[in-house]
Amino acid sequence: MKTETTIQGLSAALSPARLARKTIGFVPTMGNLHQGHLNLVREAKKICDVVVVSIFVNPIQFGENEDFGSYPRTLEADSHLLADVGCDVLFAPTVMQMYGEHERKTTVVVRGITDILCGKSRIGHFDGVATVVTKLFNIVQPDTAFFGQKDWQQLAVIRIMTQDLNLPIDIVGVPIARASDGLALSSRNGYLTADERQLAPTIYQTLLQAQQALQQGTDLAQVLIQARQQLAQKGFVVDYVEAYTPDLLSITTFQQDVVLFVAAKLGTTRLIDNVYVKCHGS
């Protein structure tokens, strides 16, 4: 596996693949990798000839009171994990390499679906995501890019942005990777205390109960209320429990497939999760 830290170095590393017309797969990450990230690489290896993974903790997607400074940076360990699953090129640029020394005057904004769910409480977050992913797409120029479905809203934002900007890239969503007790894998799980880690799978259990209640005919609004109450009673500080169509359109009744979304804090750690609920009558 090659490791490149500059845009020019990455371009040179990928030049032989481009000349040979090999397909390039891309997995953008912020590092501190877990099996969820590695699953993205595995999926990319199935489809593409060459797989590039970026590790870049992007400052412009963190809010003022968020964890940019303390976000885990584990490049050496991440490199070993990536080599083990067959990553071909690791791109690990600095902030200076990505943004330069001049004031950034361009921001990529995807309107509408960035105003709901995480976008409502993390103002500007998805602008930062869309901007850095656009830059990375331009730098890597992949044929296919892979994103986890745990960040369903992010995946939707990237899909729309790619379509609206006519970027010649296929976007692939990869199912959520979970621990044996159901907790969705996340780099931020490492912030949980031992007691919080024991409690954290309650989010997924609550989502599964909500899924079952919906499919048994319980009213959607009632299901969401029950899920919020259940999490609050267990000690979570609930940001939202909401339902949208898979394309993130508003919905009030369960007459088509929906996705149930949760964001909640446990101690200082913000956790997100979702489940897809099929509507058998649709």
Secondary-structure blueprint:
Blueprint: E1 2-4, H1 7-19, E2 24-29, H2 35-47, E3 50-55, H3 75-84, E4 89-91, H4 95-99, H5 118-121, H6 125-140, E5 144-148, H7 152-164, E6 170-174, H8 194-199, H9 202-215, H10 220-233, E7 237-244, E8 258-266, E9 269-277
Parallel strand pairs: 1-4, 2-3, 2-5, 3-4, 5-6
Antiparallel strand pairs: 7-8, 8-9
Query: Structural class of the helix and strand makeup?
Result: alpha/beta
Distance between the termini: 47 Å
SSE order, one letter for each helix or strand? EHEHEHEHHHEHEHHHEEE
What is the helix fraction of residues, given as a range?
25-40%
- Give the beta-strand count: 9
Shape: globular
Task: Kindly provide the radius of gyration, computed on alpha-carbon positions and rounded to a whole number of angstroms.
Answer: 19 Å
User: Biggest sheet: strands, sense, closure?
Assistant: 6 strands, parallel
Contiguous uncertain segments of 5+ residues: none
Average of per-residue pLDDT values: 96
Q: Order of strands across the widest beta sheet?
A: 1-4-3-2-5-6
Relative strand content: 15-25%
Seen as an oligomer or otherwise, the chain set is single chain
What's the helix count?
10
